[in-house]
Amino acid sequence: MIVPLKQPPWWEGAVFYQIYIRSFQDSNGDGIGDLKGIISRLDYLQTLGVEGLWINPFYPSPQVDFGYDIMDYFDIDPQFGTMADFEQLVREAEKRQLKIIIDLVLNHTSDRHPFFIESRSGSHSAKRDWYIWREPAENGGPPNNWAGFEKSSWTFDHKSGQYYYHFFYRQQPDLNWRNPAVKKAMFQVLDFWLDKGVKGFRLDTINLLFEDEDLRDNPVTDEVPEYLKQVLSIKQLPIYTINLPENHHVIKALRQHLSRKGDEEPLLIGEVFVPTLRDLVPYYGDQEDEIQLPFNFFLSNVDKLSAVSFRQVLAQDSEYLSHYPTTTVLSNHDLPRATTRYASEENSEAVAKLLATMLFTLRGAPFIYYGSEIGMRDYPPEIIDEVQDPRGKLDWPEYKGRDGARTPMQWSDRKNAGFTKGSPWLKLNPDYVQRNVKAQLANPNSILNYYKKLIALRQSWSSLRRGKLTLLGEDPAVLSYLREQQDDPILVLLNMSAEKNLFRGENFEPLSQKTWKVLASTHSVATDNFPSLRVNLKPFEGLVLKKD
Ligand code: GLC
Questions:
Q1: Could you tell me if 316 and 277 are in contact, meaning their C-beta atoms sit under 8 angstroms apart?
Q2: Residue 548: pLDDT band by 50, 70, 90 thresholds?
Q3: pLDDT digits (tens, 9 = 90+) for 242-300
Q4: Which residue of 205, 233, 332, 391 sits with most ligand 1 atoms within 8 Å of its CB, as the best mutation to test the pocket?
């Protein structure tokens, strides 16, 4: 009997593109990106070569947290379009072999969701127990010290004399996942969107569903925990609010619920905040029956461009995750863009290409945050009156919020960069005059054309997409690794310093006997063959080589 080889799922090692819908493309002149705008850019995304599109939330919402506060899980916010637009988007994406992944917020709803309005109507309301309501502490204050986006995660409700819990803003009350009715109602949301043709979900803050039932205080600390410091400013260890074992019960049940829906299992990508890379492992599930792709944020937590620091993360990755598919994330809508974190205005283009070389040659499925492909940089607000993100208002001026990384996509040098004919919801980075898609399409050496080249390489070399990764050496400035599947090695050299550096291939047994040929390079190279594998790397040079 011939047993057919199991095909790897489409998403394994695939290239994803994140669309922050408000800022991608406006089609109707209201200054806010929308679904029709995305449709008009699908050809662009197809030629870029990406395979999956993750779209940030578009559901009806008061937009307190820009869509992460949902008041109806079964519809589209009119500012983003209509359900017919969404259906058209799915059809048009399918024609171009693009898979749509939608963002889903299960941890909390908007305070204007009918469930919460009912829950809040009184202590005897039928939905009271759908959220987390508690009596005040003896002094009348919040029930305990839990904090999240706000200094206290509890808000007092005068009418009933109780507090409700919200890890994020007070307008985002947490659902009570200990109540089976909540589970039932929320699972229906996934069914609804699968029927519309989406191929998977990016599960927002999926390891925050449960909190300690006894409401124990979180231990207080002097510093914000390292793994949270990019998004939060809490000085406590959230051991009773994040990452509780009960999360796994719901995630398993969710996966099981979805696997009954048909042959091709929908993809679950999970936003999980964990203290160490090793803590990601349980989120795959003990039977690999939980999240297929828990986000790996550890590379994006590295705070300077450093071969040593990136190597440390990759070494841990090899130790704990080598048997699991993973993701490579350098930027997203919650973080300063990688170009801003690791480059100055002067060396931004070189660093953007270097980072791209890393993004597309590591093991994990690469996630491109819109605009990274042209090297967009942050443009944060200068005064508090300009701030849109409420996180920015809360901690101003120490933290300016996330607006800087969410500025409109820079399509051309026309007014408002071709993003909108109206007045944009967030001011544009004035560098759009030089840094834009149109200009970069016309320039063979642009970041954009380099992205295209690397994406195409990743798709044609299975060593890059699925091969194992071996780190080479401990050079303080040059990060180097091999990707291999069968006898098809690809060698990657990344000079992370502003100095020239010599890479000595003869130091590494697996390299010495071979001649290497250049597949891609951040700079133009004098030769495309390295017989002795001594390579003089220019500042910030990245090279991808194959055995000749
Ligand atoms: C996630 C989102 C972030 C949002 C938060 C609350 O971390 O990425 O943008 O503010 O969840 O939903």
A1: yes
A2: confident
A3: 999 999 999 999 999 998 766 789 999 999 999 999 999 999 999 999 999 999 999 99
A4: 205
Q: What is the CA(123)–ligand 1 centre distance, in A? A: 29
CA distances from 88 to 101, 114, 202, 234 (A): 15, 28, 21, 42
Looking at residue 281, what is its pLDDT?
98
Residue 394 has a pLDDT of 85
The residue ranking higher by pLDDT, 181 or 8, is 181
Distance 201 CA to ligand 1 centre (A): 14
Three-class SS of residue 361? helix
Task: From the CA of 333, give the closest atom in ligand 1.
Answer: 9
Judge if the beta carbon of residue 204 lies within 6 A of ligand 1: yes
Question: Region 126-147: what's the mean pLDDT?
Answer: 98
For residue 6, is pLDDT > 60? yes
Ligand 1 geometric centre to CA of 282 (Å)? 22
Burial group, residue 327, by CB count within 10 angstroms (0-12, 13-18, 19+): buried
Structure confidence at residue 509 (pLDDT): 83
* C-alpha–C-alpha distance, residues 328 and 483, integer Å: 15
**3-state SS assignment for residue 525:** coil
**Ligand 1, closest atom to CA 107?**
12
- Is the beta carbon of 68 within 6 A of some atom in ligand 1? yes
For ligand 1, the distance from its centroid to the CA atom of residue 154, given in whole angstroms, is 18
CA-based radius of gyration for the chain: 24
Nearest to 323 by CA among 12, 7, 5: 12
pTM, rounded to two decimals: 0.97
Ligand 1 pocket test, pick from 19, 64, 68 with the greatest ligand atom count within 8 Å of Cβ, gives 68
The atom of ligand 1 lying closest to the CA of 334 is: 9
Catalogue the active-site residues: 204, 271
Average pLDDT of the segment spanning 134-147 = 97
CB distance 368 to ligand 1 below 6 Å:
no
SS (H, E, C) 440-466: HHCCCCCHHHHHHHHHHHHHHCHHHHH
Q: Please report, as a single letter, which amino acid is at residue 151.
A: K
- Residue 103 half-sphere exposure toward CB, CA atoms < 13 A: 22
Tokens coding 368: 């491109």
From CA 195, how far away is CA 130, in angstroms rounded? Answer: 26
pLDDT-based confidence at residue 65 (cuts at 50, 70, 90): very high
CA 154, CA 148: separation in Å to the nearest integer? 10
Which burial class, exposed, middle or buried, applies to 205 when counting CB atoms under 10 A from its CB (0-12, 13-18, 19+)? buried
C-beta separation of 386 from 427 below 8 A: yes
Residue-averaged pLDDT of the chain: 95
